[in-house]
Structures are given as C-alpha cells and as structure tokens.
Amino acid sequence: GDSVTQMEGPVTLSEEAFLTINCTYTATGYPSLFWYVQYPGEGLQLLLKATKADDKGSNKGFEATYRKETTSFHLEKGSVQVSDSAVYFCALSEGQAGTALIFGKGTTLSVSS
Amino acid sequence: GAVVSQHPSWVICKSGTSVKIECRSLDFQATTMFWYRQFPKQSLMLMATSNEGSKATYEQGVEKDKFLINHASLTLSTLTVTSAHPEDSSFYICSAGGGIGYEQYFGPGTRLTVT
Question: Is the pLDDT of residue B55 over 60?
Fold first, then answer.
C-alpha cells in the first residue's frame, strides 16, 4: 500500500540555519503531496502542496518540489526562525477529492535563537 | 480559507462514560470528514471516513461500536467514544474535504483524558 517515510527527528537548528526535512513516498498512482505543520497544542495546518510531478509548492519561505523520479518531496527553508519550531508532517493523497491522507511519522523541528 | 472547528478542545471523563466530540466545517460544505487519532509524538492514524448521510467506513482495527461516528449534515460530524477507558486517552483530530482539490482542512483537535 501507499506509504510516506520522513527523516527521523528531532531536528535542532540555530536561527537562520538552512533546513531540509526529507520525505519519500510509495504510491501506486500519481498522488498529490503535502506538507502539514503542527504547532504545539494545535491542529494541523497545510503548509504547502504539489499535485503533479515537477510542481513546486511554497509558502512562508518553505519550499518542496515533487520529484517523481526519486519519489521525493523534501521540505526546505533557507533561513529558519524560532517561530518555525513545530512538528512537520509529509502526506500524500491518491485519488479523488475526499480521499484520506496518508501521513509520515512527523519530524520535530526545534530552532533556538 | 476553509475553517474547521472541534468541540470540546479538551475533555476529561471517568472510565465507563461516553464522550461526544463535534467537528464542524464553518464556511464550506464538507461531503467527507475524516477522524484521526494521534498518540504523543506519533503520526496521525486514520480511524474512519464519514460521508454525509451514510455510514462511516472504519479502518481495520478500529471498533465501530466503540467509536460511533455520525455525519448528519454537510457541516457537522460527531465522534462518540462509548464506555471510555484510559487507553482511549488520546488526541482526536477531524478533517473535512469539500471537493476543493485534494486538500483537507483540519480541526484543532480534542484532547481526551480518561481517568
């Protein structure tokens, strides 16, 4: 079945450091890919998405490119801030709207000043 | 943007009692809603999928008689944890899909503690 694999955390960085969180997926078709962020004590928020190969999703300085050849959707940010400290989930959805998401295990990011 | 609310945000109940959690889509009609369960420092595990006006589809291993899901309207789904036990303590999150592409919009979650 479909699955999402994320790098193990926690990831600890200093403010303004470069961030990469790796995400790879396994799917039988052509999924849409997402990154969600969960701040402490809150629900999930959609950070960015890409619906087809070579699409780049971007939001709040974060970027991720849908790479079909490597089945990857790595999250990057050039300069992290303390406020970026959160848990980041990579997810995929295969099929039509209304299909449940399959999540990776999440990666905790901690940014210190 | 699409907003999904959950109520209550936090609930403590005694073992053996039942608890109802509401999930509402505030500014769009959600034909499908999903219920997830999240254990501390772990990912979200899909419990069930509910479509308005029909029975929920439960994931393998989820007891349908224990976790009752009702999707009575296009803006409201409820999850009732019946005869709760301490092992049911968890963070329950709902999401709603309204046909806006493949996105789902998540509620803020409900933390259930069973004593």
Answer: yes
